[in-house]
Every structure is written in structure tokens, then in C-alpha cells.
Amino acid sequence: MFDEFENIAIPLIPKYKGELLLRIRPAENSFVQHSIDKPYEVHLVRFQTESDFENFTYDEQRKKFLHLKEQSIKSSILIQGIKL
């Protein structure tokens, strides 16, 4: 289910002026220390504006398949950053 959702959501990113910079599935031995659950997958995505990101999250096609994401993941963390 997770991969099915990803196959729909990831191709939508460029439509909203976004870019998938990294998609990582870390190996067990790649964790030096952690205080949260180890992630199955990590995405680093950049959008030109916060509005572009919001438009991506409200995309109608993406929303139709959110149930796949919700059924296949335990939790997610969104970190908003700024380029220094």
C-alpha cells in the first residue's frame, strides 16, 4: 500500500514546483543514535514556496489515495527548513 501511494504522490511533486532531493531507505547499521522510531524511508523534498507545498498537499488526485498512506505508515514527521 505504501509503494502504491508513493507511485501516485511522488510524480505530483514537480507539478507544484517541488523537487524530490533524496529518498532514502536507511539500513539498520546506518543509525548511530536515535531517540525516535527508526524510519523505513526518509524523503527530502524542496518546494519553491510554502504555498506550492500546501497546493501539493491539497492535490485532489493525491487526496483520493491518502487512505493508502494512512493504512501503511505508523507516523510521519514534517520538518520545515530554510536554506542557509
Your description of this structure?
The protein has 84 residues and is of the alpha+beta class. It has one domain. It has helices spanning 2-9, 50-57, 60-64, 66-72; strands at residues 18-24, 42-47. The chain has a two-stranded antiparallel ribbon. It is globular and about 35 Å long. It starts with a helix and ends in a 12-residue tail after the last helix.
Summarize the structure.
The protein has helices spanning 2-9, 50-57, 60-64, 66-72; strands spanning 18-24, 42-47.
Topology:
Elements (H helix, E strand, L loop, with lengths): L1 H8 L8 E7 L17 E6 L2 H8 L2 H5 L1 H7 L12
Antiparallel strand pairs: 1-2
Strand order of the largest sheet: 1-2
- Percent range for helical residues? 25-40%
**Tell me about the biggest sheet?**
2 strands, antiparallel
Query: Could you give the distance between the termini?
Result: 36 Å
What is the H/E order?
HEEHHH
The average pLDDT is 95
Question: Got a strand count?
Answer: 2
Can you count the helices? Answer: 4
Number of domains: 1
How large a portion of the residues is in β-strands, by DSSP E?
A: 15-25%
Which structural class do you get from the secondary structure elements? alpha+beta
Shape: globular
**Low-confidence runs:** none
Radius of gyration computed on alpha carbons: 14 Å
